[in-house]
């Protein structure tokens, strides 16, 4: 997909009751190569909505969530499993987890 395609898909998939993705988040998502196709993008968007309950999802939120998932960033071709490699959530994400509504995640 091209960045323009990704942005269209983000608009289609992000429907979380008035919550918004900041422009830097959209730009970062558009830079990522999405090797797992459209389902992977949808999964990341749903994960952001689940983990963060505040009205604006920021670039720090996205990067913390990607670190939790093991993504190395939008320019990387590889993934590592930080859940098993480190056994810990990124500190900023761990601090926000209690704020997530109804979250059963570790």
Give a concise summary.
This protein is mainly α. It has helices at residues 3-13, 23-31, 37-51, 59-69, 82-85, 91-96; strands at 20-21, 56-57. The longest helix has 15 residues, at 37-51.
Average pLDDT taken over every residue: 77
Q: What would you report as the Rg, rounded to the nearest angstrom?
A: 13 Å
What would you call the structural class? mainly alpha
In total, the number of strands is: 2
Description:
By secondary structure, the chain is mainly alpha-helical. It has a two-stranded parallel ribbon with strand order 1-2.
Secondary structure layout:
Elements: H1 3-13, E1 20-21, H2 23-31, H3 37-51, E2 56-57, H4 59-69, H5 82-85, H6 91-96
Parallel strand pairs: 1-2
Helix pairs in contact: 1-2, 1-3, 3-4
Keywords:
mainly alpha
């Amino acid at each position: 997909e091209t960045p323009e395609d990704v942005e269209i898909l983000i608009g289609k998939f992000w429907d979380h009751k008035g919550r918004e993705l900041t422009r830097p988040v959209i730009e970062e998502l558009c830079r990522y190569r999405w090797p797992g196709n459209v389902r992977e993008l949808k999964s990341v968007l749903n994960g952001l909505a689940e983990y963060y309950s505040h009205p604006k999802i920021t670039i720090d939120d996205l990067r913390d969530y990607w670190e939790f998932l093991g993504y190395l960033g939008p320019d990387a071709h590889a993934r590592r499993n930080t859940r098993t490699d480190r056994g810990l959530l990124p500190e900023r994400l761990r601090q926000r987890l209690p704020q997530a509504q109804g979250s059963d995640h570790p």
